Structures are given as structure tokens and as C-alpha cells.
Amino acid sequence: MLSKFRQWLGNKNQREVKNILAHILPKIDKYYKSIQDTKALDQVSVELRTSLQEDSKRKEALYLAFAVVKEAVKRALGITMHDVQLIAGWILCQGDVAEMKTGEGKTIVSLLPAYWFGLQNKGLHMVNVNEYLAKRDYEEMSKVFKLLGLSVGLNLASMSEYEKRTAYLQDITYGTCTEFGFDYLRDHMVSEAEHRVQRALSFAIIDEIDSILIDEARTPLIIAGTSKAAPDLYYVCARFVRGFLEGRDYETDRESNQVMFTESAIRKIEAAFMIDNLYEVEYTVIYHYLLQSLRAKVLMHRDVDYMVADHKVHIVDAFTGRILEGRQFSEGLQQAIEAKENVPLSEENRTHATITIQKVFSLYNQIAGMSGTIQTDEEEMRRIYGLEVVSVPTHKPIIRQDYEDIIFLTKEIKYDRVIEEIRKRHAQSQPVLVGTTSVQQSEDIANRLSSLKVPYQILNAKTEQEEAKIIAGAGLKGAITIATNMAGRGTDIRLGEGVAQLGGLHVIGTERHESRRIDNQLRGRSGRQGDPGSSQFFLSLEDELIERFAKDEAEEFRESWQWGQEGFLGGKLQGFMGTVQRHVEQQLLSVRSMVFRFDTIIHDQRQAFYQQRNEVLQSEEWPARLSHSVVSYMTAFIHKYCPDHKVPEEWDIWQLKREFGAEGPFLHNIQDWQNSQKIIDQVVVEWTNRWDAYIAQREPSYWKQIWRPSYLQIIDRSWLDHLESLQQLKHGIHYQAYAQQDPVQAFQKEAWRLFNQMGDRIQKIVARKVMQELRDSTNEPIQRMNQVV
Ligand SMILES: Nc1ncnc2c1ncn2[C@@H]1O[C@H](COP(=O)(O)OP(=O)(O)OP(=O)(O)O)[C@@H](O)[C@H]1O
């Protein structure tokens, strides 16, 4: 059944491509021929902007737009776009995902939808995975947009508010997914609407969409505020766990990446910190600090998970090999690592705003994306994001030779063989790219080569500054480039003179990644645009993936096979490696689905909150808004203590007066305690009279100057508290699974209850503040509760 379905999908995919080829491309071509003599392509853009306004002309306008871009690319870059590139561009304009094999020229393809959406005066965001690529594409592609008369901007993390706003005002804005997301969050934290930098989010073209929507999905963007960590305690805890031993003091669950103290360690801690029971609530903080220190010691590895530079700890992203700029490990883990590394502690972050990358892109009216490696996750794209994936055939057949994996018994033997292979290829002057999974691993290989006096260049998070130079040299004769995943996606290694004759670039993978897509990205640095090239993975039974997820199974292979210094090629072992990798992919998928489901609930709340906040920011109706808060506050109390479903004799009037406290005067004149609506009416009249008198004394500017900032402060603080409650709720909710409850449903119910509570709390604080102000201004003697009763 399933295979039939796949077949149908396959056919549908082919049908779509054939349809574009047969019916769309000829029309584009007609326009293409007709504009050959047109000098000013920017003039065509002006006309297109107008035709776009009329629905009846849009289709033809789109054909013309493609033709114009094709011509501009030829004039500006000297490149003639292939038909398959036009097909991919067409797919993107429909809001789908185009899968084009690595090296097929997606950067140029993206110009087609960028131009089309850019003409629509709403702003298009070209989303890259990192700033290096954003900057590279911006610089290179600006030449084309200039000819076309479209404005282009670049949005970088280091830019000022003014520079960013200018970048966002252009027809097309290049930038990274994280920065677009951070700007969105920051725009919802401003105290003046003029400080916002983005326009309404309209269109986004996402390059490497699998990296952005799938790999990035695990770490949300967090804007953190500053609250000083307790430095001493972190240092004490770091020192304390330093001597802890696995088995004796702690246990590790490698698969889920968790650590826990043993009972004997707990007793040690209790004795050292002189406490009776570490599990008591009052010791939660110590327990948390200790656990984070233990995680820092056991699970977080220098030059793998993080790097230390300039006395700071930087996160290294496993998927891209790059430093995650501006991000920190959360919940005190950052400080625990800093204490372990003995560098100054950064300020502990209190989440001020957070969003996941997936949700950032759900805010756009239309998105489209492309990748060389998305087919394996087609189902996820459709189910979670509602995006269809269409595979585009290659321009020329891929002739890269992907050799079978070689699997060795130990890492040591594997690395020996990797070095041998590098030297063998190097002796023939063939350029080699060695892919590693961490900075540490890249340095290990580099050291081995150094000791053999073999020249190489190294690309990892430490040499990021020289990235462009290293890449430019990586395809030259005799080049050896050792790289982390930084030389994965997007990196365009061009072959030097005579390299094609030597077999092109040879890629060596030294470990399988957590997903096949990342492996394929690495292979895809070679064999681009029909070039020759080859790739091979060298693996061992001691590799990280095996150690973490398949230790027992690997043991069987270790014992029952005849291992020597030579490895085994492909076969059953390669199958085993593949199975482990798919198992990991599945596990990651279920984590993502869970994160996504939780996040959808938080996202709905964030949207509701941001909408309210925007209203506050732009409000001109301050007196009415404030008065409304007071009236709602009072009404809620009256309903609470004088509910309609009870007879007046049962009403708790005493408690009502008590709750009103200082506001007693509003209830003072009420004689008839029989009808709650009448009570409300009377209170409202009383309030309105006094409020009107108060308003009359104030200048119109008073409200915006005094009330807006206080109001914003109140709602922002409440939101912050709410975010923290949600965080705690999420931690706690997993236990619900034991009680046979769906944790997400339980979370949803409770999260909305908390959200409503936040609304009530805001109203209460505002109402009280308003009433207080009114009292202060009239200098009325405060009526004490007992005077009222
Ligand atoms: N139509 C074309 N004719 C000739 N060269 C082209 C054409 N289109 C793109 N190129 C070149 O092909 C190379 C690869 O392009 P690009 O880096 O955009 O590929 P990609 O599909 O984005 O690869 P990856 O999947 O690795 O990111 C570049 O050097 C580019 O200039």
C-alpha cells in the first residue's frame, strides 16, 4: 500500500516537472528571446510592478519575470541558467520546496522567486543558514538585482537598529534565520513603536530548508535578560564534582544524554553541604547547580560541544560546526561549564522572549525553500509544515563515485587508514576534503598530518575568519582540507586547473552524522555541476554514534568477526551502521514532534500576547483603556462574591468589601444588596464620575508619557513570569505520562489556565495602580477596611 502511495507521489512529482517543462518553459523562452535587445532591464521591472497589481496579468507577468532574471544573470554573472533551474524557480514561486542536488546552483535559482516576490513591495527575506553565506550571496547577487532595479539589503547581527531598519526596507533582504527570528522577538519588546526594525513578515525563501526547519528545530531562539548567577556556588559545585567517578558517584544514560547521582554521591553531598535531605524543596537550588556541574563535567566536551576563546565559552553547533553566536546553554549549564573551565561566569539568563525557528516561519504569508537533501524528510515537511517537496532532475548526470563505507575495529586503526588514504591521494595531487564531526577531531587529524610533515589547511570554528580563503583553495591541486561540518552546506568548492583530470575532489567522511542528510551534504561538496569527484566514509565500531546508540550490537560484531588491521567494506556492517543512523533519525524526529506540539501551544499564546502588546504600544485611548481595567476588575469581584446563581443571603458581602479594601468608598453608597447588576451599575457610575474629574485635570500628553511605560512594564513582567511558569510546567508535565495522560494535552490545559491567570493578574495590577493614583491625586484619606464594614 505504502509503496503504491510512494509510487503515486513519485509520478506526481514527475508529472509536475514534465508539466513545467512542456508548458511553462516555452512561454518563458518566448519572453526571453523578446528581451534580448532591451537595454534597461530595470525599466521592465517598473512595468512588472504595475502589471502585478492586476490579477488577470499576473500569469504572463510571471513568465516575463523569469525571462528577465535569466537575462540579468547572463549579463551580470556571465552564467546562462539551465532549464532545471527555471523549473526549480517555478516550484519555489508556488510556495513549495524544491529538492535540487548539491552543487546544482540553488543560489542562482533563488533569484527567480526573490525577484518575483521582491517586486510586490512587501519585502522578501532570503534566508541563509549562516552569515558567511548570507554575506556571500548578498554581495554576489546584488549585481543581478542592481541590473533589475531592485533594492537589496543585508541584515547582520552586529548591525545597529538604523542599519537593520534600512536593510528591512529593501525589496530583498539577505540574512540568517536566527537573526530574522531575533529581530522579530526584539520588535515585540520595544518601548516605542518607532524602534521596530521589521515590516510585517510577508515572503521568505529559505535556502537549506531542511537545516533550518529540521536541524535547527531543537534549539529555540532565546532572548535572555540578565540576572547575576551565584558565582561562588557554581565554582564550589564544579570543584565538588570534579573527582566524581562514573559508576561510583554517577550513572550516565548515553542514549538520552542524561546523568544522575548515585545514592552514595547523594550522601557525600549531604555530608559536605551539611544538609539532611538533598531532595527537600529548600535544597532544589543546590541540587540543580550540582546536577548542571555534573552534566558540564560528563556530557559537555570542550572542542566538541563548546569552545573556549577569549575567556568565554561558546556553543558549537553539531550540525553546522559553527559557533552559535549570541546563544548560551540554558538553565545554568552555561555557567556550570564556565566554572569547570575556570573562566569568568557570564550572567545567567532569564528568558525574556523565546521562539522556535519553525514558528518564526509560520509567521510569514508565504514561504518556499530549497535543499539538496530533503527527500528523506519529505513526509515531515508535508505533515508539519504543509509544504510539498518536488525533486528537480540534475542538469547533467552526477558522475561522482560514492564508494562503500569501510568499517574498522577501532578509532585508532581508522585514523591510521584515513591518513594513509589522504597521503595516497595527495601523492597524485588530487585535492582531498576530510570531514570531521568536531573541532577536536579535526585537530587530531591535523596533528597527525603535521607530524608527517604533510601540508594541510584546517576549517573549523576557530579558523572561521579565513573561511573564504580556505574554501577558495580547497579545490586546487594537492590541497588537503580538514574541516568540521562548516564545510558542509552551501560551501562551493571550485576545482582548480587540471583537477578534473585527476578525478576531481575526493571527500573522506570520518564519522557518520546523526542524520543521513548531513552525510550527503558532505559528499555533495564534490561532483558539483556534473564535475568528476568521489567520496568514502571511514568508520569504526568505536564511533560516537555506535557508542551511544548501539554498544551491545557492536560488541557482537566485535566478537564474532575476524578483525585485523584491515577494515570491512560495505556489506552487513554498512547495513548495521545505516540502521543505527535511521534509529537516531527516528528518535530525533520524535523529539522534534514533541517540541513542535508543545511549541504550538506556546506560540498561540505568544501571538495573543504580542497582539495585545502592540495594541498597548499604539494605543491613543489611554483614559478609556485604564478605566476599562478598573471596571472589569471591580465587576469581576462583584460577580465573585455576589454570584447570580446564589441568593443574596448567601453572598459574601463582607469578603467583597474586604477585597475592595481601600476602594471601599465605591461600595459605600450601596443600600440595595439584592441585585448584582445594580451594584455593578452603581459602582461604575461612581467610578466614572471620579475618573472623569481626574481626566479633566490632566494634559493629553500625560497618558502616553506616564502610563504607557508603566503599562508596558506591567505586561512585560507578567509575560516573563508566565514564560517561566510554562518552562516549569513543561519540565513537570512529563511525569503526567506516567499517569497515562497525554503530556501535551495536559500541558495545553494547564498552560491556558496560566495564561488566563496572567490576564487577570495584569488587570488587577493595572486597576490597583490606577485607583491608587486617583486616590493620591485627590488626597483622599484612605478608608480602611474596618471603617467600611
Ligand atoms: N547555470 C549554470 N551554469 C554554470 N554554472 C553554474 C550555473 N548555476 C550555478 N552555477 C555554479 O555552480 C556552482 C554551485 O552553485 P551553488 O553553490 O549555488 O550550488 P548549490 O545548489 O547551492 O549547492 P549546495 O547544495 O552545496 O548548497 C557555483 O559555482 C555556481 O556559480
TrEMBL record:
Pfam families: P-loop_SecA, SecA_DEAD, SecA_PP_bind, SecA_SW
Entry membrane topology: Peripheral membrane protein
Helicase C-terminal domain mapped to chain residues: 414-575
Coiled-coil regions, chain positions: none
Boundaries of every SecA family profile domain copy: 2-570
Keyword Membrane (UniProt): yes
Gene Ontology molecular functions: ATP binding; protein-exporting ATPase activity
Residues that bind ATP: 85, 103-107, 492
UniProt xrefs under PROSITE patterns: HELICASE_ATP_BIND_1, HELICASE_CTER, SECA, SECA_MOTOR_DEAD
GO BP annotations listed: intracellular protein transmembrane transport; protein import; protein targeting; protein transport by the Sec complex
Entry-linked CDD domains: DEXDc_SecA (cd17928), SF2_C_secA (cd18803)
GO cellular component: cell envelope Sec protein transport complex; cytosol; plasma membrane
Residue spans crossing the bilayer: none
Location in the cell: Cell membrane; Cytoplasm; Membrane
InterPro entries for the chain: Helicase_ATP-bd, Helicase_C-like, P-loop_NTPase, SecA, SecA_CS, SecA_DEAD, SecA_motor_DEAD, SecA_preprotein_X-link_dom
Keyword Protein transport assigned: yes
Cross-referenced SMART domains: SecA_DEAD, SecA_PP_bind
E.C. number: 7.4.2.8
Keyword tags: ATP-binding, Cell membrane, Cytoplasm, Membrane, Nucleotide-binding, Protein transport, Translocase, Translocation, Transport
Reactions that this protein is recorded to catalyse: ATP + H2O + cellular proteinSide 1 = ADP + phosphate + cellular proteinSide 2
Domain Helicase ATP-binding: 87-247
Subunit field text: Monomer and homodimer. Part of the essential Sec protein translocation apparatus which comprises SecA, SecYEG and auxiliary proteins SecDF. Other proteins may also be involved.
Family: Belongs to the SecA family.
HAMAP family per the UniProt record, alphabetical: SecA
Its job: Part of the Sec protein translocase complex. Interacts with the SecYEG preprotein conducting channel. Has a central role in coupling the hydrolysis of ATP to the transfer of proteins into and across the cell membrane, serving as an ATP-driven molecular motor driving the stepwise translocation of polypeptide chains across the membrane.
Protein name: Protein translocase subunit SecA
Source organism (scientific name): Paenibacillus nasutitermitis
